[in-house]
């Protein structure tokens, strides 16, 4: 488990290992819906160390719908890119590994 940003206004926990994160959200989060990209929906998170700017440029080039979000925690800015995979699962790519563990 890694430290989850305290700036979030909802309950949850972040599990992280081997570059893959599982973000558990407390309460009744919305389920993934292919028509809506909601960062608070169930999703799997992957740490991306290849440069999120390059990933975002590729998403734009390939016309993949996505939502970009930022979280600031203790002076560290985390960038998140949310999208659906071809099967409709919500996926997050982030530089979450910058957060203290």
UniProtKB/TrEMBL annotation:
Write down the SUPFAM superfamilies for this protein, in alphabetical order. Answer: Glyoxalase/Bleomycin resistance protein/Dihydroxybiphenyl dioxygenase
Q: Which named protein is this?
A: VOC domain-containing protein
**Originating species:** Haematococcus lacustris
């Amino acid at each position: 488990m890694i430290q989850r940003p305290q700036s979030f206004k909802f309950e949850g926990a972040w599990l992280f290992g081997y570059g893959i994160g599982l973000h558990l959200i407390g309460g009744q989060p919305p389920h993934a819906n292919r028509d809506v990209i909601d960062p608070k929906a169930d999703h799997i998170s992957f740490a991306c160390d290849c440069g999120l700017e390059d990933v975002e440029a590729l998403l734009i080039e390939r016309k993949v719908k996505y939502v970009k979000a930022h979280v600031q925690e203790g002076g560290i800015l985390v960038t998140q890119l949310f999208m659906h995979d071809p099967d409709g699962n919500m996926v997050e790519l982030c530089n979450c590994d910058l957060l203290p563990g």
